User: What shape does this take?
Amino acid sequence: MTTIGFETHDHHACVSETMAKAESRCAAQDLRLTPVRRRVLELLLAEHRALGAYDILGHLSAEGLGTQPPVAYRALDFLVKAGFAHRIEALNAYIACTHLGKDHAPAFLICRSCQSVAESGTALTQGRLGDAARAAGFQIEHTVVEAQGLCPACQPQDAA
Amino acid sequence: MTTIGFETHDHHACVSETMAKAESRCAAQDLRLTPVRRRVLELLLAEHRALGAYDILGHLSAEGLGTQPPVAYRALDFLVKAGFAHRIEALNAYIACTHLGKDHAPAFLICRSCQSVAESGTALTQGRLGDAARAAGFQIEHTVVEAQGLCPACQPQDAA
DNA sequence: CTCCAAATGTTATAATATAACGCTTGTTAG
DNA sequence: CTAACAAGCGTTATATTATAACATTTGGAG
Assistant: This one.
């Protein structure tokens, strides 16, 4: 399991590598990474924070890429369906995927102080939720797993 | 672990027992279960489904208990804070707690076909999310764990 | 009885999201 | 080449979810 987001890292490389992966995946799967979609992915990648659809729209409209809500929502829908981004239900916001290419049943750690979000790539239908589903005869199609709290940097001091 | 919601059960008893528990808990903790709050809890208990704030408001206004959104939101906020109800983030909706009195880190199984919701009472910050948090040094304060899929009754046939 | 805190009533508006429809563009079959 | 089609985009309008703010009422403590 890898959890990306809180520790320092080479962010420039993390952005450009992910863009490259997204491009090659679009080529391979016949998906179209149009200018608006590409720019929204870049905006999300620029921070390990969740951005609201209207935050995105603000950037797009400042750059002449679109002024109305559907522009942002369509791009976000595309990115989420393609697996390039995730929606954070607890925040009504969106974040770039940091585990592009891997299987996918993401869990998120959301800091209430600095708003940073880390994505933890666990395998699906395992853990407690999977146990509960099996016990109840429930067939899982999609999971929302989000924890809110304090990231290492925002804790009172003495915690690592 | 108990998961309530999909299996048939004595629903009348399940409702009245929960109301009784809520009342005694309010008495014990000096909380006020006012008419609006009590009615909202009854409405939520009446179904093992999540109801939107405006669904609730519709019932309240039909019964002369209030006509404006804040009426519903205040009652729901009270019930959630008191632990009598939970908010389902993936649906922007609310559901009565089926594990009243127990510790609390609920996980939900949400059927996309019949909209029923089961609450699984796990003792959380354990499982995958807990592992990820510990590995990252993240301090969990609240968790959102929701699975969407098909309940036993809504599966194609042959699955139990 | 008065004061205070909690709850409620009410108006207004904010924030998030989608329906619907027409235009443009890029691809493909003829 | 070009007609036909699908996907994407521009735009208007509106739906859905949620909260800010302030006046009024209620219930209990002193």
Observations:
- The CA atoms of residues 12 and 44 of chain B lie 13 Å apart.
- Chain B touches chain A through 43 residues (CB under 8 Å).
- The helical segments of chain B are 11-29, 35-45, 53-62, 69-82, 127-136.
- Chain B has one domain: 3-154.
